[in-house]
Amino acid sequence: MTDTDPPPASTPRTIYRHRIATRAWHWVNAVTLFIMLGSGLTILNAHPHLYWGAYGANFDHPWLNTIHWPSYVTIPAHYNLAIARRWHLLFAYVLSFGLLGYMVVSLLNRHFLRKLRVRVRDLSAANLWHDVREHLAMRFHDPADPQAYNIFQKLSYVGVIFVLIPTMILTGLAMSPFMDAAWPWLLDLFGGRQSARSIHFIAAAALTGFIVIHLTLVILAGPINEVRSMITGRWRVPEEEA
After folding, report:
1. Is the pTM of the predicted complex or chain greater than 0.85?
2. For 108-111, which contacts have Cβ atoms below 8 Å and span 24 or more sequence positions?
3. What is the pLDDT averaged over residues 221-229?
């Protein structure tokens, strides 16, 4: 090579980023949550008022009156409470046993320990502010360790896996008369059936917010690369970070 020759182009570096258990659970959840949220809105349309405590009916004062959700976001598209409940309950089983299976596998392969462990130094003001600046600059990964999750990813994934989804499952069980008879402590845990219904709605709204932010960041980070990594497990490190 002479002094006038251009430098050789760098070869993009590809890493194995997502194990098969993570990828499988991700895509199962993508379908499951879509159906559960849509059928849940149909169920909510049957009585779009939320209360605190053990009781709530038409003449009680709700803490929130929700809108009537249009047919293009509900499952089914026409109002049918019985079918919506069947879809909701069926995929509640998928969500519950999928979470259980993912937790068992992630404990065995140490995924939680390797990827999601939050250390005290991660929560320092300096580290949080650094990640805020990196996100604002559209840099979403650490060039020194592209596989590592940043603190906001860790906190959001921990919140979803260990707080939001379990809360949705338990509050859903608390609204079941059969489970109330078998596990009466569920009603005491959430302060009554109507409180459980309200918490169920809040958790679902928080999960919907997570999904919207997650999809937005996928688009900003490069949708082709991100989606491919969740299908094949292989992720190409962006050139500016390689």
Report:
1. yes
2. 109/19, 109/21, 111/19, 111/21, 111/22
3. 91
